Structures are given as C-alpha cells and as structure tokens.
C-alpha cells in the first residue's frame, strides 16, 4: 500500500491524492494498492501543469500508519512544527491514523 | 549605500521581464519542470517542503528603511506575514506562490532589490561585517569592495556556471565578524592590503581557508579574484557535486600549488582590462560616506541614570551594543532570538518597526548579520533609551547578543527539502532551557549553531557548541560538536560521541555549561577559552553522561 503526494505547481503547497482527487489534507490521503499507485504516479508525473515532484510513500500494511522513518512526511503532512517544542512533538501527533507518533 | 545607475536598473528590469516570461511559459506548460528548475533557481526561487521559497539578496547585508518597509509589505501581501533572515545575510520568504513571483520581483526592483545570485552555481552574494563603516576596530570599510565584487560578479559570463556555488566574505576590522576563513574566498583587509584565504567552507567537508596571498592591493582585487576563479573553473570537479567546491580542488592540489597556478594565471591576464579604474573605485567609495552624524549633546549623567532606573535597559546596552568609531554613537544589535521563538524570523509589523526606528534614530541604515540579527550601525547614544523603548514595545529588545540563546539555526526540516532533522524546535527548547537572563549573563559569550543536515547552513562546525541533525533509521538525532569558532582564530569543532535524541540535547548542553561554570578560572574566561585550555574531552564526557 502506498500514498501519493506532490506539490501544486501554482503555489507549491503539499497535496495528497484522495478518493476525491488532490487534497491539501493529509488525513484524506487514499491508501492505494501498489499497482494503482504506480499507475497514478505515472499519470500525474506527466501532468506537470498541475502538480510537480509527485512520489509515493510506502506503507508497511494496509492499515498501518506512515512509518516513523518518514519524519519528513510527518512534517510535510502537518506543516512546520515551529511553536511546538521537541518534547511536545514527542507527545503530540495530529494524525495517528496516517502518521505514526513521534 | 550604493544607488543603482541606469545600467543596474536596466539589468534588473530585463532579468525580471525574462523571468516573468519563463514563469508564464511554465504555467502554460510550454516549459517542463526540468527545464524551468534551473531558471527559477537563478532567480532565487526554490520549491521546499510546503511551498515555494524566495530568497532575496541583501548585498553585503546592507538595507535602508525604505527597503525593509518593502520587505514587510511583501511579507504581508504575498507571504504569511513574516520573513526569515539567513546566515548569508539574505531574507527568505517561505510561502510564496509561483504566479506571484514576477510581481514580487517587480516590487523589489522599485527599491533596488532582487533575488539574483542567491542560488545556482555562481558567485553568490558577498557577505561582510555587519558593523562595517561603524566599528571602532575597523581600518578599512569593506562595503565598497563588496560592491565592486558584486558589480564584477553579477552576470559574469565566465562564472555563471561554475562547478559549484562560490561564496566570498570580506572584513576590514581586527576582529573577524564575517567568518572569512570558512568561505570559498575570504578577504581580510589589513593596512598593507588584503590577506586572501581560499578553500574554506563548511558542509560535508569542512575546511579552513588557506592564506595564499598577502598585501593584495584593492586596485588589483578583481584581477586576482578572476585568476582564482579561472583556475577553479578550469580544474574544479564537475563530475561529482560533492567534490566540486574549491576547497576540494585546493586540498587535492595543495594550497601552494593552487597558489602557484593562480599567480601564473594572474600574470597572463590583461589586468588593466579587468581591474576597476581608480576613478571607478573612488566613485563606488562615494556611495558609502559616513552618515551626517548628529552632534546631539550626549548627557552622560542622564544616560547612566536611565540604566540605573531600568535594569532591563542596562542589560540590553551591555549585551546588544558595540563600540562605535565615534564616542557619542554605538552600534545596536536588534536580536531576532526572543526566548522560545524561531531564530531569525521577523513579522511584517516588526520589520516596519525596525524600518521606522532606523529612520528616526539611525540614519535609515540597517544591516543583516550572519548571526541572523538586524543591526543599526549608527545610533546616537542620546537616542538609545528612546530607541530601546520602541523596540521593547515590538518584542525586539531581547538582550542576548552573543549569548547562549543568540543561536544560529537553519530552517531545518520544518521548511527545507534537503534537511534530515528539525533545527528550529531544538533551538526553541534550548532557548527555553536558558531563559533565565541572569544565567545567560553569568555564562557570558557562547555561540550555539544548529544545522539540520550536513550542508551546514547553520554553521554548526564553527559553533562553540555545534549541533548537527542527522537521520538515523528514520529518527532525528543530533551530534554535538565542541570547540568551533568563526572569528580571526577560526577553528572547526569536533564531533563528540554518538548522537542524542532531541529531547536529551538541552539537558546535555546544560551539563556542559554547568561544568564550564565550575571550571572557568574567572568570569572573563569565555566558554571557548575554557574548552581550548582544558580540551574538548573534558566537556564531551559531560555531554554524554546519563541524564
């Protein structure tokens, strides 16, 4: 299973591919089986007037969150963590269903 | 400050028109991302984690009130109401829309600003001492030379596509506040001419520059730089970007051999065709006169009374002012490091306040320091308390200049697509750990510098305590370095032991600081002096003992 993510060309904002198309909300990200994910990636890589830098994030299982090795994706999904301290980050997580707690 | 002539205006206008066309063609699909990326980078536009980032050039860190107001306007109109001052004396906006970029550049051009030479493998913005033209220990104002280098390097046809980026720093004071030994080329003006260092740098392969020339006359500066760049451009590694900086070439050839080749190249050049004519140097110098210093009567008794009555003001004067070449003036550091907030950030409202107070009290001159603060280089002492009061009302009076909470931190993984770990939240944690003003004053001068990856934008190699964020199997860890310094006695810090998780770093630093306070010979022995006297290992053990 994978998630598809990219940045919107016009403003660069982080996008997540959802059942309803691209969403700015990572919680809406669709869990795609590998073949579908690869096909969508190929399709969207070619649609450069809409999104740039499309790539896939692997999930270890269908219902698993994004693994903790993807701290970068945690930040991309939740926005800058500035204003929260590392201690707070360690306690807080915005999207346990998608992104594993840090 | 330098004022654009018709050539400068036309140059910037043409570049902006060219880029506006490129943006339009990218949005229409005529240009692919692969085609567009190098074009946008040449205009300072990056695509980061969350949005486009526009890096605006502040040549040698010099700004006017009018320019700062424009930056505030851009923050308010096109970004999320704040900007981030960088270790390259530039300013970054983190939430820029691609389609807005041409309009932003047009607005910048109205105040003689742009985003050129802030990215790409060219000669980048030349950096210098933030107290240039004001400091008491200065014997040569570096700004005219930095401007000369800017004019020579902008759009230089031979050096627009170097093997890698190229950074020049220049200072003209006894104390090196421009970190010249850790730049590709560092220039230190001495009474007999420039000392020229080459091959310094941070990043993956930290290195201190080697002095290959002394007594270089300013009138020959450009031809000598041209020779240095030519040798690099000819032999620098283009096959491996990790080995493409000049420091790698200098290390491979040896400084003596590199210097020999430069001298040989220099001899072959038509120097008269490259070096600026004497009249041009005089013309450029004429843009950097002293301000029309106010001879306001300085009432020392009232000044001292104000400090007695307001301890916070007294502390700010002690920590955030520097001796000026005139007894009745000082240079002021406006700290952008309030406890618990991101280092280097300023809101649009704060930018407006800085522009206003500069206009009212500081001859409309501001500077950006590579420590990510804003400087008012010339402030009459008679106006200091009024200035302080205005800054205090805007949360700009943090009295921590040069202290442990005056940290450098790169944007890190909160914004940067290259980073491996976050820098800013860690800086916030450390800042809160040392929030007690009495404690920070007791500790004295101590520079912490934090980078979120090996590229070292946060200068961690030259922090008295350096912190490098690394990714260890998906978890952020932080390696601690000790003993670095970027001044005239520049040294590279050494990594101590294994990395620590973020939540363990503030306590580890506190242990080191407490040990320093126990071991120092007197209040005047700074942390870095104690590390050099006792050895790094003495302090490394404290870093890594169990919490």
UniProtKB/TrEMBL annotation, chain A:
Domain of life: Bacteria
Pfam annotation, one family: DUF2849
Xref: InterPro entries: DUF2849
Protein name: DUF2849 domain-containing protein
Annotated source species: Asticcacaulis benevestitus DSM 16100 = ATCC BAA-896
Lineage: Bacteria, Pseudomonadati, Pseudomonadota, Alphaproteobacteria, Caulobacterales
TrEMBL record, chain B:
Stretches assigned to the Nitrite/sulphite reductase 4Fe-4S domain: 119-267, 403-545
GO function terms (MF aspect): 4 iron, 4 sulfur cluster binding; heme binding; metal ion binding; oxidoreductase activity
Sequence ranges assigned to domain Nitrite/Sulfite reductase ferredoxin-like in this UniProt record: 52-111, 339-393
InterPro entries: NIR_SIR_4Fe-4S (IPR051329), NiRdtase/SiRdtase_haem-b_fer (IPR005117), Nit/Sulf_reduc_fer-like_dom_sf (IPR036136), NO2/SO3_Rdtase_4Fe4S_dom (IPR006067), NO2/SO3_Rdtase_4Fe4S_sf (IPR045854)
Domain of life: Bacteria
Keywords: 4Fe-4S, Heme, Iron, Iron-sulfur, Metal-binding, Oxidoreductase
Protein name: Sulfite reductase
Protein's organism: Asticcacaulis benevestitus DSM 16100 = ATCC BAA-896
């Amino acid at each position: 299973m994978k998630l598809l993510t990219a940045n919107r060309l016009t403003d660069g904002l982080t996008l997540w591919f959802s059942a309803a198309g691209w969403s700015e909300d990572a919680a809406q990200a669709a869990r795609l089986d590998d073949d579908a994910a690869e096909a969508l990636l190929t399709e969207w890589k070619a649609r450069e007037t809409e999104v740039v830098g499309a790539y896939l994030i692997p999930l270890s299982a269908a219902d698993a969150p994004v693994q903790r090795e993807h701290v970068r994706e945690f930040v991309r999904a939740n926005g800058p963590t500035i204003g929260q301290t590392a201690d707070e980050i360690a306690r807080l997580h915005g999207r346990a269903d998608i992104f594993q707690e840090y | 400050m330098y004022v654009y002539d018709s050539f400068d205006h036309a140059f910037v206008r043409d570049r902006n028109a060219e880029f506006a066309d490129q943006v339009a063609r990218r949005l229409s699909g005529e240009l692919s991302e692969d085609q567009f990326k190098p074009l946008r980078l040449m205009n300072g536009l990056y695509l980061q984690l969350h949005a486009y980032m526009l890096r605006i050039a502040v040549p040698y860190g010099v700004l006017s009130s009018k320019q700062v107001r424009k930056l505030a306007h851009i923050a308010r109109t096109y970004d999320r109401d704040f900007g981030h001052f960088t270790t390259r004396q530039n300013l970054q906006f983190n939430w820029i829309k691609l389609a807005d970029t041409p309009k932003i550049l047009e607005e910048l051009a109205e105040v003689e600003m742009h985003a050129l030479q802030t990215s790409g493998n060219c000669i980048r913005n030349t950096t210098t001492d933030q107290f240039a033209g004001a400091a008491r220990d200065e014997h040569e104002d570096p700004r005219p030379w930095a401007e000369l280098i800017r004019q020579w390097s902008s759009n230089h046809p031979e050096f627009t596509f170097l093997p890698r980026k190229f950074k020049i720093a220049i200072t003209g004071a006894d104390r090196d506040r421009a970190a010249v030994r850790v730049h590709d080329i560092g220039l230190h003006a001495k009474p007999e001419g420039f000392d020229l260092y080459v091959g310094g740098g941070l990043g993956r392969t930290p290195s201190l520059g080697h002095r290959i020339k002394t007594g270089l006359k300013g009138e020959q500066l450009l031809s000598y730089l041209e020779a240095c760049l030519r040798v690099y451009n000819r032999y620098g590694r283009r096959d491996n970007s990790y080995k493409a900086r000049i420091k790698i070439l200098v290390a491979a050839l040896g400084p003596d051999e590199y210097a020999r080749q430069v001298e040989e190249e220099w001899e072959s050049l038509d120097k008269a065709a490259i070096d600026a004519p004497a009249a041009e140097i005089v013309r450029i110098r004429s843009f950097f006169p002293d301000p029309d210093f106010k001879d306001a009567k300085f009432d020392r008794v009232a000044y001292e009374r104000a400090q007695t009555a307001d301890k916070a003001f007294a502390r700010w004067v002690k920590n955030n002012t520097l001796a000026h070449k005139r007894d009745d003036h000082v240079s002021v550091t406006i700290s952008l490091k309030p406890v618990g907030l991101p280092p280097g950030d300023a809101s649009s409202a704060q930018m407006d306040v800085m522009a206003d107070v500069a206009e009212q009290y500081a001859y409309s001159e501001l500077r950006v320091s590579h420590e990510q603060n804003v400087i008012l280089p010339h402030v009459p002492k008679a106006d200091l308390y009024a200035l302080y009061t205005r800054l205090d009302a805007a949360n700009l009076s943090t009295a921590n200049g040069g202290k442990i909470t005056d940290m450098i931190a790169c944007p890190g993984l909160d914004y940067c697509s290259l980073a491996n770990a976050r820098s800013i939240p860690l800086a916030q944690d450390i800042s809160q750990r040392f929030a007690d003003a009495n404690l920070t004053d007791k500790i004295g001068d101590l520079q912490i510098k934090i980078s979120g990856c090996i590229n070292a934008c946060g200068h961690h190699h030259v922090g008295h305590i350096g912190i490098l964020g690394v990714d260890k199997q998906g978890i952020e860890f932080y390696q601690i370095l000790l003993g670095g310094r970027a001044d005239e006695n520049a040294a590279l810090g050494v990594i101590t032991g294994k990395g620590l998780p973020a939540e363990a770093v503030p306590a580890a630093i506190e242990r080191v600081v407490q040990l320093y306070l126990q071991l120092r010979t007197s209040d005047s022995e700074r942390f870095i002096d104690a590390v050099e006297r006792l050895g790094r290992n003495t302090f490394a053990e404290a870093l890594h003992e169990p919490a």
